[in-house]
């Protein structure tokens, strides 16, 4: 596992973004883990978050893209901090763009988007916190494609939960790939998280012990995506 992935797992734990216990998800599923990207709130956390996204995007997609698109609302700060980090780490200016939940009908920046306007020929990387069902892509992809003649290079999320999506067989990221034809990736997967944290002391504590590992395994027996 790459060093930045190991560091990102520790970063999620330290930032109280990745939690373990008993959680009821929006879907109604009872999960032994929960990820809340809204817990990244400080300047230093957001700076590091942008760097991890930038490294993962560079690793997966290289430099051949022009725009980072972050769907409202959580995708807005993600696209901004990642564009900054990409400039600092790789010396390439990437534009950011996000959609508005409600169209602005006045001012110089009126319209359906924030940040850079999408232009014909743009190559776009989508960026989100986590994709559980793929519903946000149903709303976002038509907006992006309808704004200009662009190519969507791929999607990057922070954590792949690796559980079945709406289709009941594949994970949401694979469903998005099959539906829209662009690549889908995550900085880390839950398999990476379990591999790295299982029975490994971190700051004097074992976060995923045998009991929690058994609960995670049981969860994936029921909700895990078919590989």
Automatic annotation (TrEMBL):
GO MF, one annotated term: orotate phosphoribosyltransferase activity
Domain Phosphoribosyltransferase: 44-163
InterPro entries named among the record's database cross-references: OPRT, Or_phspho_trans_dom, PRTase-like, PRTase_dom
Binding site residues for orotate: 132, 161
Cofactor dependence: Mg(2+)
Binding-site residues, 5-phospho-alpha-D-ribose 1-diphosphate: 26, 73-74, 100-101, 104, 106, 128-136
Gene3D superfamilies: 3.40.50.2020
Source organism superkingdom: Bacteria
Keyword list, A-Z: Glycosyltransferase, Magnesium, Pyrimidine biosynthesis, Transferase
NCBIfam families (UniProt xref): pyrE
Function summary: Catalyzes the transfer of a ribosyl phosphate group from 5-phosphoribose 1-diphosphate to orotate, leading to the formation of orotidine monophosphate (OMP).
UniProt subunit comment: Homodimer.
Family that this chain belongs to: Belongs to the purine/pyrimidine phosphoribosyltransferase family. PyrE subfamily.
Protein name: Orotate phosphoribosyltransferase
Species annotation: Hominiventricola aquisgranensis
Gene behind the chain: pyrE
